[in-house]
UniProtKB/TrEMBL annotation:
NCBIfam families: alr
Binding-site list for substrate: R131, M301
Keyword Isomerase (UniProt): yes
Annotated organism of origin: Chromobacterium subtsugae
Active site: K35 (proton acceptor), Y253 (proton acceptor)
Catalysed transformations (reactions): L-alanine = D-alanine
Family, as annotated: Belongs to the alanine racemase family.
The protein's name in its UniProt record: Alanine racemase
Family matches, as Gene3D superfamilies: Alanine racemase (3.20.20.10), Lyase, Ornithine Decarboxylase, Chain A, domain 1 (2.40.37.10)
Gene: alr
PANTHER family registered for this protein in UniProt: ALANINE RACEMASE, ALANINE RACEMASE, CATABOLIC-RELATED
Transmembrane segment boundaries: none
Chain positions with N6-(pyridoxal phosphate)lysine modification: K35
Cofactor(s) demanded: pyridoxal 5'-phosphate
Length: 357
């Protein structure tokens, strides 16, 4: 026996979500974003599930790229932040990786590569996010330098939007970038999940969907299910104890919940050491044997409590879905002041995982 908590990954949902995105995207090619262990879903399982669908994969760590190659994934692989040092720049050729070039330092590393096997680079433009990339006024020079290097082949021009998921939109960033992109005559890559769903004029040649593949909405005001996506990750745990509360009794550390009536609560084998957010407010949604309920009190390291007052049939052994198809991860994230991405990435290694094909 083992502690009754588990993470289930539904690979057919990931495939569904890819095809759903494919149908809506104008982009000619879609590179599935599998960084951060495929947003916590398992990079190898996810990449294998998408191997015959995705036009390529995008990630950060060269170790992950090498692992995909060693697992037989033959599609193009793009390093979203490019090489982190000269050795990685050299390895890009060896493993046939493409990737961003956002700095002069990267250019110098890449230039030392082999002209027989030039590294394919995506010129990264900082169109307003102000994290990585050449400013629009530097782009012409940067591209000229890339084109002059025999060991480098410019293969795309890319940027990343700061507000594709918000009312602010992408117009300001798109305006400068679109001109550069046209002048460069390179394939264009700009759209993340939110832009793929909301801003078709930015789709260009290579879309970069991430969160939608995992079935969550990139938008604050909707859920993946409402958009037509299928949640691919389900975190669930069982009730291991039941408490009868009297009016005035408190629950958990800090007495953060005090009963204002007689109540029945269940203690669930999931806590912040499993990746459930400690900061989640009273009433954060859960589903108990499929019925809606909410958390009560502060989340502990290994346990949390849920209201069973309206669920007399629930008890020890009842399954509590913390997030998944019955408890939208977007709602859980909102109750914890964060986004679904962070919850997906934070599930702890101690939680046993299983796959559904
Ligand atoms: C993470 C990332 C994406 C995917 O973003 P989603 O919002 O998950 O679709 C796309 N492009 C870049 C550069 C990224 O870092």
């Amino acid at each position: 026996m083992t502690r009754p908590i588990r993470l289930e990954i539904d690979l057919s949902a990931i495939r569904h979500n890819f095809l759903f995105t494919r149908q809506r995207a104008q982009a000619k090619r879609l590179f599935a974003v599998v960084k951060a262990n495929a947003y916590g879903h398992g990079i190898l399982d996810t990449a294998k599930a998408l191997a015959d669908l995705a036009d390529g994969f995008a990630l950060l760590n060269i170790e992950d790229a090498v692992a995909l190659r060693e697992a037989g994934i033959d599609r193009p692989i793009a390093l979203l932040e490019g090489p982190f040092d000269a050795a990685e720049a050299a390895a890009m050729g060896e493993y046939r990786l493409c990737g961003a070039v956002h700095s002069l330092e990267q250019m110098a590393w890449l230039a030392k590569g082999s002209a027989a096997r030039p590294a394919e680079v995506w010129l990264k433009i900082n169109s307003g996010m102000n994290r990585l990339g050449f400013r629009p006024e530097q782009a012409g020079d940067a591209l000229a330098r890339l084109r002059a290097e025999p060991a480098i082949r410019p293969a795309a021009i890319m940027t990343h939007f700061a507000t594709a998921d918000e009312a602010y939109g992408v117009d300001e960033q798109w305006r400068d970038f679109a001109t550069l992109a046209r002048d460069s005559a390179l394939p264009v890559s700009a759209a993340n999940s939110a832009a793929l769903l909301r801003h078709p004029h930015t789709h260009g040649d290579i879309g970069r969907p991430g969160i939608v593949l995992y079935g969550a909405s990139p938008f604050e005001d909707s859920t993946g299910a409402a958009l037509g996506l299928r949640p691919a990750m389900t975190l669930s745990a069982d009730i291991i104890a039941v408490q009868q509360l009297r009016n005035g009794d408190a629950v958990g550390y800090g007495r953060r919940f005090v009963a204002d009536r007689d109540m029945r609560i269940g203690i669930v084998a999931c806590g912040y050491a499993d990746g459930y957010p400690r900061i989640a407010a009273n009433g954060t949604p859960v589903a108990v044997d499929g019925a809606a309920s909410g958390t009560v009190g502060r989340v502990s390291m290994d346990m949390l409590a849920v209201d069973l007052s309206h669920l007399p049939q629930a008890g020890v052994g009842s399954r509590v879905e913390l997030w998944g198809p019955q408890a939208p991860i977007e709602r859980v994230a909102a109750a914890a002041g964060t986004i679904s991405y962070e919850l997906m990435c934070a599930v702890a290694a101690r939680v046993p995982r299983s796959l559904r094909a």
